[in-house]
Amino acid sequence: MIGFRPGRSVLHRAHPYTPLAVAAGLLLLAFAVRSPAAVWVVVLGAAAFAAAGGVLGAVLRPAALLALPTWALLTVLHGLLGGAPHVALGPVAFSAPGVERALVFGGRLAAILLAFLTALTTVAPPRLVEAMTARGVPFGRIYLLVSTLTVVPRLRSRLRQIVDAQQCRGLRIGGSPLARARALGPLVVPLVLSALAEVDEQALALDVRGGTATGRRTALDPPPDGALDRAVRWAVLAVVLAAYAWQFAGAGR
Question: In whole angstroms, what is the distance from residue 107 CA to residue 78 CA?
């Protein structure tokens, strides 16, 4: 589980819309290019994006854990069922076009995971709330987005508290797989019940604070949106449009 990580990198200091725009641009670029080499250039761009935020080491592991099963499945399906010509690797013959397609799909997945995990770890939810409020985004949409971004850190913190409390009461977490399975009940039940109680508390708090009120809200401390941030977002849009125009021009020949 991964969430926002405080820092002083260029992405942490940027306007919240800028890392989100770069992540969205990398996603669109991953689908704009079709050759394995070009897709993996986008993957390197996503890795550079994470390095600029100082979170490359933090996002590589969860991205790999999420992507590896899909990579393996894509390699098997496309490599064995992708059609001729085939390349023999020991007793198994892999389809060359199928392996190429697997590399493209796997690269797209890697780029998307790296890009959005980087945005998740570098965009502070409070700053995003202020930025969206300053732009006049309805409060309901702000709450839905930010609650989704913060659910993982909240669950992680609550689970750590439950584990510590249950261990103080004598619960054994380690041991054999069967012992670990027995320990899931005392951990999962309090986690689910506390999450349901938090939902009820948040609903009451939002009602008291006028969450359903109409009208534009005032941002108390909106993050500065400088010329560099705007230039980066326009540059991302220009690169994405150029990539799709190049692809459409090539397809029309």
Answer: 14
C-alpha span between 129 and 144 (Å, rounded): 11
**Token pair 């669109």: residue:** 28
- Condensed to tens digits (0 to 9), the pLDDT of residues 15-28 reads 999 999 999 999 99
Question: Which residues, other chains included, contact 143 with Cβ-Cβ below 8 Å and sequence gap of 6+?
Answer: 206, 211
Global pTM reads 0.78
Token pair in block for residue 228: 């560099």
Q: Whole-angstrom Cα distance, residue 125 to residue 119? A: 11
With 80 as the cut, is the pLDDT of residue 112 above it? yes
